[in-house]
Amino acid sequence: MSEIIIPFKQWSKERLKDNKRATSRTTVYGKIGDTFIVDGIKYDIVGVIKLPLDFVINHLYSVEGAESSYELDIVFNNIFKNKPLPNWVYVHFFESVDE
Question: What pLDDT digit, counting tens, does each position of 58-69 carry?
Answer without folding.
Answer: 999 999 999 999
